[in-house]
Design brief:
This protein is α/β, with parallel strands linked by helices. It has four domains: 3-55, Phosphorylase Kinase, domain 1; 65-139 and 355-546, Rossmann fold; 156-327, Dimethylsulfoxide Reductase, domain 2, CATH 3.40.228.10; 587-720, Barwin-like endoglucanases, CATH 2.40.40.20. Helices cover 29% and strands 18% of the residues. It has a seven-stranded mixed sheet with strand order 5-4-19-18-17-6-7, covered by helices on one side. Strands 28-30-29-32-27-31 form a six-stranded mixed sheet. A four-stranded parallel sheet has the order 11-10-9-13. It is globular. The termini are far apart. Bound molecules: ligand MGD (2 copies), iron/sulfur cluster and molybdenum atom.
Length: 722
């Protein structure tokens, strides 16, 4: 039997662990960590080990599906489905205009390295701004609003590999394999953390839970959730009052320091301590430890980014890094200038705020102060519409109402805030198309579900993580096994429908061939045109490795273009006032507990619960609470409870976990099923879990600019159900 071993990488999550696959007659027979890879050191996790099973799993769609008149699905050839969808999209475009056609590019759209660019090309060709991604219900303040309002440093901030300290706010990389540079690297995070500890990196953690990361840190502020902006303001107030900041850097590169100092002055550690539930001296200790550095960054994860005041929190975290000068300077070598990102000189200088990005983009039809947000990418600014209010855009009648939604590797019915509203919004569409490997909760509502190739069935390159690494690392993977049957890639959908609609699609590197379907390599070469390392070199390299790119030494600031990071942009005063008022808010007697989000090892948002190894580790998303609290409520470990907010109620399995601060319930998202009562999903709480987005009103605490909903720190109460 012909057997071959090929190097590839996992795309179950975006850590992209290198693997070695053994293939016999186009069947994947073994998948092991690539132990030759120096960066990952043979690391993989339990999810990656399920890729073999995923390929042939009984729930995997082997063919595309079309909804029939009686509500059931029947198989349909993908060419036929694309023909029909193209006709329907053309009609909707004609009747309602370009804005009525939206795409939502969820988690798995990011795992196909060509999906986003081709989808954007499709939107550009029809003139539709309705381009949505999961980033705007994930961390829009961090990737968009923060840098837009304050500006940014062109040399980047200190990365983990040469940090002396890291301040990690609600980010649990050891489970999530996610962090922005500066936090614990997401690639083999246990090794990275051990290596950092050996080097003497001091770790400060702010998290209501003694997480995997928090249990290994030097100083843990086990806060009451929801006051992170105030805590970071207090840290800054200590640093400024003790003159621990980098004055020389501030003199040259920031503006608004005095106003920032005035604003944070009232957030003394004593003023914040009671509300945040940590002793004032811990806040002081955190400030001094971080300021001592001398190198290292403060970073945030999803917990606080989904909690109260995310725009202010992000502004303060960026301000903290700026006032402590945690940026690479002139004459320093960039640890990773990027492999696939465009070559070009970099200099040690700031770019100032871009207020026009918050003002001039397409406005949401739902609220004037919400609109397109601009995400900074290595290729320049990229605008997208805010997913936090997409359901409202779908429900609000009138010009521009979304009538067709193309959902790429996402699961809105479980992921978007306010599940019942999402259900109504999806039900009201004229056309819902999902590209999904299974009949997910959302796909069950779709008119068409297209069966995608899975990661080992396609080529890809590590474009998404290109500048997340602390070395110029990259990997190109060939197709490991050819997909059986009739399956497509995410980008092929947009190309094929575009072709049928007679569109000319074009990307950064030029037009896409609309006659002959381009190869994946050609598309990726177009997307990465001008890259530091030619794509072909990466293609011809077996496995992932660090590329020998010429050193990039930061040039001195150019007086002609040098700007300042603005520490006191318009709008922050109101946010300071709101965060301050929260410090004195009386506890909610009816809903005394705070529900926060968390990731679980054995699932990836809604992907995974069907796979055997992952299923064996749990089939529900427990409501984790401190055992003392459960005892006080007379609730037994494992008992079914009702978690209730002002907006909705869900069942959950109460589970004792003493790593959680009393007063807090920690539950994972993207579980459960349809909120439609006839689906009776509540009865399956032990088999499918429940959906925390039913507890969330997406408009109640909508954040300015992004409309970001409060998806963590939700006031809830619980009661026994059984
Ligand atoms: N295994 C697994 N990995 C994943 C995912 C998954 O579902 N499963 N999801 C992926 C996705 S989409 C993303 S965006 C990333 C996210 O990656 P992370 O941001 O690292 O996500 P979490 O592990 O949930 O960590 C968030 C932390 O915030 C804490 N927290 C909650 N509320 C607050 C608060 O108010 N203040 C503070 N300071 N902390 C708070 C929580 O206790 C938790 O420890 O993970 C990715 N990786
Ligand atoms: N309350 C609350 N809500 C949250 C969060 C929270 O912490 N709390 N987290 C938010 C965050 S950070 C995010 S990123 C979003 C996630 O939002 P989404 O991306 O919308 O949700 P996922 O569950 O990741 O959806 C992934 C879908 O892709 C499918 N899939 C799996 N593999 C493949 C593949 O190879 N190809 C294709 N085409 N499809 C595939 C899965 O079956 C699943 O239906 O949820 C957000 N919602
Ligand atoms: S951490 Fe796990 S799921 Fe993520 S890429 Fe690595 S093996 Fe795959
Ligand atoms: Mo996310």
């Amino acid at each position: 039997m012909a057997s071959k071993t090929v190097k590839t990488y996992c795309r179950f999550c975006h850590a992209y662990c290198p693997m070695e696959a053994t293939v016999e007659d186009n069947r994947l027979v073994a998948l092991v960590p690539d132990s030759d890879n120096a960066i990952y050191g043979g690391y993989t996790c339990v999810k990656g080990r399920q890729l073999i099973e995923q390929i042939d799993h009984p729930t995997r769609l082997q063919q595309s599906q079309k909804k029939q008149a009686d509500g059931t699905f029947a198989a349909i050839g993908s060419e036929q489905a694309l023909d029909e969808i193209a006709v329907q999209l053309a009609t909707i475009l004609e009747r309602y205009g370009p804005r009525s056609i939206a795409s939502y590019n969820g988690t798995y759209s990011y795992q196909n390295s060509a999906a986003h660019d081709v989808a954007r090309a499709f939107h550009a060709a029809i003139g539709s701004p309705s381009y949505y991604t999961s980033v705007t219900i994930d961390q829009p303040a961090k990737v968009a609003i923060g840098p837009t309002r304050m500006g940014w440093w062109n040399g980047g901030s200190h990365m983990w590999n040469d940090a002396d300290v890291a301040l990690i706010i609600g980010n649990n990389t050891l489970v999530s394999h996610y962090s922005i540079p500066g936090g614990i690297p997401s690639f083999s995070p246990h090794n990275a953390l051990r290596e950092g500890r050996r080097r003497g990196v001091k770790l400060i953690c702010i998290d209501p839970r003694v997480t995997e990361v928090a249990s290994r840190c030097d100083l843990h502020l086990q806060v009451r959730p929801g006051h992170d902006a105030a805590v970071v303001a207090a840290i800054i107030s200590v640093i400024l009052s003790e003159q621990l900041h980098d004055k020389a850097f501030c003199d040259e590169h920031v503006a608004g320091l005095e106003q920032l100092a005035q604003q944070v002055a009232r957030f003394t550690p004593e003023a914040v301590a009671a509300a945040a539930g940590v002793p004032a001296n811990q806040i002081v200790a955190a400030a001094r430890l971080f300021a001592a550095g001398p190198r290292g960054s403060a970073v945030t994860g999803t917990g606080p980014e989904m909690g109260p005041h995310p725009n202010l929190l992000q502004h303060l975290v960026q301000s903290l890094n700026a006032i402590c000068g945690r940026h690479y300077r002139a004459g320093e070598r960039l640890p990773n200038p990027g492999v696939l990102t465009p070559a070009g000189p970099r200099s040690a200088q700031a770019t100032g705020p871009q207020p026009q990005w918050l003002r001039d983009g397409v406005r949401s039809r739902v609220a004037d102060d919400i609109g397109e947000t601009v995400v900074l990418s290595p290729y320049g600014p990229l605008a997208e519409m805010p997913t936090a209010v997409i359901s409202d855009e779908m429900l609000l009648a009138g010009e521009g109402q979304i009538k067709a939604l193309i959902c790429v590797g996402g699961n809105p019915l479980l992921a978007w805030p306010d599940q019942e509203k999402t259900h109504r919004a999806l039900a009201g569409l004229e056309l819902l198309v999902c590209i999904d490997l299974k009949l997910s909760a959302t796909a069950q509502m779709a008119d068409y579900v297209l069966a995608p190739k899975l990661c080992l069935e396609r080529e890809d390159v590590t474009l998404l993580t290109d500048i997340w690494h602390d070395k110029p690392y990259s990997q190109y993977t060939r197709t490991v096994v050819e997909a059986e049957g009739d399956k497509i890639e995410e980008w092929e959908f947009f190309w094929a429908v575009g072709k049928r609609m007679g569109l000319a699609l074009s990307m950064r590197g030029g037009p896409i061939d609309m006659r002959e379907k381009p190869t994946k390599f050609d598309l990726l070469a177009n997307i990465t045109k001008g890259s530091r390392v030619p794509l072909a070199d990466i293609y011809h390299t077996e496995g992932g490795r660090v590329f020998d790119v010429p050193d990039v030494i930061l040039g001195p600031p150019d007086p002609a273009t040098q700007e300042r990071m603005q520490l006191h942009p318009p709008g922050v005063d109101e946010e300071f006032a709101a965060a301050h008022a929260d410090l004195h808010r009386a506890p909610d007697r009816d809903y005394p507990l705070l529900l926060v989000s968390r990731r679980m090892k054995n699932t990836y948002n809604s992907t995974g619960p069907e796979l055997s190894l992952l299923k064996s580790k749990g089939t529900t998303n427990p409501a984790f609470m401190h055992s003392r609290e459960l005892a006080a409520l007379d609730i037994a470990d494992g008992e079914i409870v009702e978690v209730r907010s002002r907006h909705g109620a869900i069942p959950a399995i109460a589970t004792a976990a003493d790593d959680i601060r009393p007063g807090v319930i920690s539950m994972s998202h993207c579980w459960g099923g349809s909120p439609d009562p006839t689906a009776r999903t509540d009865e399956q709480i032990r088999e499918i879990g429940s959906n925390t987005n039913r507890l969330i009103d997406n408009r109640e605490h909508a954040e300015k600019y992004s409309g970001m909903a409060r998806q963590s720190s939700i006031a809830v109460a619980i009661r026994k159900l059984s």
